[in-house]
C-alpha cells in the first residue's frame, strides 16, 4: 500500500503572457498522461524491472493494482495526484535517487520517444482529447500540439458558460468508447463576456466519472478572473495593506468586495484551489504593466513533467535550479516578475488590497450594466441589449411586463442613486448581486427601430436584419474607439472594444441573444464590449454624463440606419438585355433598402424607341445600355405584372456614377416579372455555393441571357446577353426560357472566389470576360413563384440536371455585352454621412478619424489579381492607334454649334492630356448648361493639367512618350477636324433621337 506522503505544495512562475501559460499547461497535461506508460516500459524492458512485482498504484475507481498488470486504459486514467506522487513514492519505498529515476526513464518518456511511438506501442487507436468551452481564447487551438481537431469545444449556455450537461455527454461517450482525456479547461472570466465556467461542478463531475475509471487534469484559464479570488480572502493579521486602510470608511472596506460579486461566481472562484493548474495574468486584472502572465501548479511536481533537460551552463552543483528549465520560454527578463511581486507586496492579495480595488471596479461595472439595461424605452428609435440577461429574462417564458417592472426598479434603486444611497438600501444591495456579468465585462449590442404601419397606425418596429444591426454596432465602435495612430483620446469619452459572436461557437446562446435584439437569421453578430478597470468612475455624476453622450450618438446613428432601411421613391437602373425581346435586370445594392432586390423582368418599349436602341446596339454591340425610371418610384411601383411607367435609357455612367442620358420621355408597358428576390439578410444563404457558379438563364430561342444569382452578401453582379448555348444532353424548352431556369457554371466555384475584389462597372479581365466558354448544367428553378424570397434559391439536386453542355459569352464584336459589378452592389452609400443636429449630412474627411472611417467603408479600386497590368508604353501605343476611331473607345463626343467656338481651347487641353482619353470610358455629353462652365474648366486644366476631366491619374512622360508628341499632335488635328463636323455620320444614323 502507498505510504502517507507529505502535504502537497504548489508552485508557479511568470510567463510572458497567458497564451504561453496555456501552451505550457497543455504540454504538462500531455506529458503527465503518458508518464505511467513510460514507467511501464521502464519496468518491462528497462532498469526498473526490480519494482515490477511489488509497485502498486491506485486506479481511478479506487482499486489497488500492480502497475505492471494495469491495462492501457487504466494507466491512461490514473488520477493526476496518483501520477505526481510516483517519484516521491519510489524514493521512499525503494530508496531511488532523483538522478537514477531520471536516467532510468529517459529512454521511455514522451519527450524522448514521442507520442506516436507510445500510442503505437500500447495500441491507442482513439486520439486522446482535450475539452474546453466553445468560447475559449484563441490561444488554445493555437497552442494545442496534440492537433486542434482533438480539442473539443463544449457548447455554452445562454450566459456563455460551459454547458455542464453537454460536457457530461462527452464524458459518457469517452467512457463508452474507451477514449482517454488529457484535460478539461474551465474558463474563469472569458475574454468576451467575463463568464465563469462552472468549475466547482466540473470538479464534482470528475469525481463522479473516476468511479467509472475515467480521470483527467482540470485546468482553469483564469487569465482574467484569477485576481478576483482576492475578494474572498481575508487580510492576514498585521498585513501592511490592512494596517494602512484602517482609517478608511469601514462600510466601504467591507461592503464593496462582498456586494459586487455574484454568489455563483464566489462558489467557482473558491474552487480554484482544487485545479491541477491555473493560468493567471498579472497584466490583466492584476494591474501590472505588460507583459506578465503566469502559470501555477497545485502540485509542484507537475513542473517536472514539462521538461527534464538541464543545461550545465545554468545548473551547477549546490546552486538553485533556474526556473527556465521548467517553462517553454527559457531565458527571460526579470522585470515582469519584479513588477508582479512589488504590486502584490504593496497592494496585497486580499479583501483590503486587490479585493477592494477589484470590488469597487466590479461595482462600477454593474452600475454601467444597469445603464445599458435601462437606456432605451418604447419611445426611443433604438434599443440597447446587454448580453447578460436580467433575472426576469432568465426564465423559460419571460414576461414583458415583469421585465419592464424590473427595469423601472433598477432605474429607481441603482441608476438614479449615489453609491452611498445604494449601500444604505438593502433591496438595492440584494438586486445588484444578481446583475451583470460574472466578472466585470459588459458585452452588449444595439438595434434600431423603423416606422411601419400596422392596422392603419404608424408604430415603431425593431429592425430584423442582422447585417443592418451589425452595421450600426460597427459604426458605434468606430465612434468610440481609437482606430488610427493619429487618433487621440481627448474627445473619446468612452472607449469600446468589439468582437463577433460566431454561430459555430455560440450556437443556441447566440440565437437567444439575437431573439432578444429582435433579429432573425443565422448570421454572426457584431457586439460591443466595455470593461471597467477604474474604481472611481461611479463617483460624482460622471457616469450619467457619459451615458447621455453615448445615448445621443446612438440616436443619431439610428436615424442614419433608418435612412438606409426606409423604402422611398428613388431612381433605379436596369441593364437592358437583348434586341428582339427586351429583358431588364436590376442594379441591386445590398446596403440600401430602396435597391435591395434582384429583379429580372420583360417589358415593351415604343417601336421608334426600340429601333433607336437597336441601331445604337448595332453600332456599339458591346456597350451596356440601361433602362431607368424618369420619375422617382419604388421598385414595388415599377415591377409588377402589367405595369407601365415613364422611362429613360442611359448609355453609361460618368465618373461620379451619374447616368448619362440617351433617350428620354417614353412609356414602358407590359411589365412581366421573371424573378423578384429580396436580398435582406434573413433571405440569404448561410454559405456560398461550393462546387458551382449559379446563374439564371432566360430569353428567346434566338437570344439567351444570364444573370448571376445573388445568394449571400457580399456578392457580384455578372450579367451577359446574347450568350451562345450548345447542349450535348437534354433541351431547354420555350417554357423554361420564358420562366427562367438555373444554369451552373461548373468550371468555377463561387465559394473559392468570394468575396470578390472591387470591380468597377466598365469591366475587367478576370474569368467572366468576352468570348470565354464554360461547361454548364441546367436545372429547373426550385422556386417556382417569381416573387418568393430565399434562402434556398439554388437548392437543386446536382445529380439531376435536365441538360448539359457549354456556354460562350459574347465576343467583343458579337451582338452581346457583359456587365460586371462588385463595387456598387456592395457599396455603402451612407459611409460618408453622419447625423448632426438631427439632419443627415456629409461627414468631413479632413480629420484623421473621419478619413480612416471613410476609407474603411469606401476603398478605392486598386490593381487586383484579376486585372491586366499594362505598361505605360503599351497604353501609349494603343492610344495612338485607337484615337483615329473615337467612336470605338466608348467615349462619344457630341458637340453643338455653340461649342464650335470652343474647339481651339479644347484642342490645347487635349494636346496635354490626350493619352488618357481612352481610359475614361465615359461619354462626354456637353449640354447647354455646360457652356457656362467651359471657361472655368479651361482655367482648372491650365493650372492642374495632370488632373483633367477628373481622371485622377498622373501623366508621367517618359523618353519614349516625348518622341511620340509630334505624331500625337497630327492625330489630334485629325480628331479636331472630325469634332468640328459635329459627328455628322452618327447624327445621321440616329436621326430623330432626342437630345439629352
From TrEMBL:
Q: Name one GO biological process term.
A: carboxylic acid metabolic process
Q: Which cofactor does it need?
A: pyridoxal 5'-phosphate
Bias (Basic and acidic residues) occurs at 899-910, 918-976
Q: Which GO terms describe its molecular function?
A: carbon-carbon lyase activity; pyridoxal phosphate binding; transferase activity
Q: In the UniProt record, does the keyword Lyase occur?
A: yes
For this UniProt record, the keywords arranged alphabetically read as follows: Lyase, Pyridoxal phosphate, Transferase
This one is known as PLP-dependent transferase
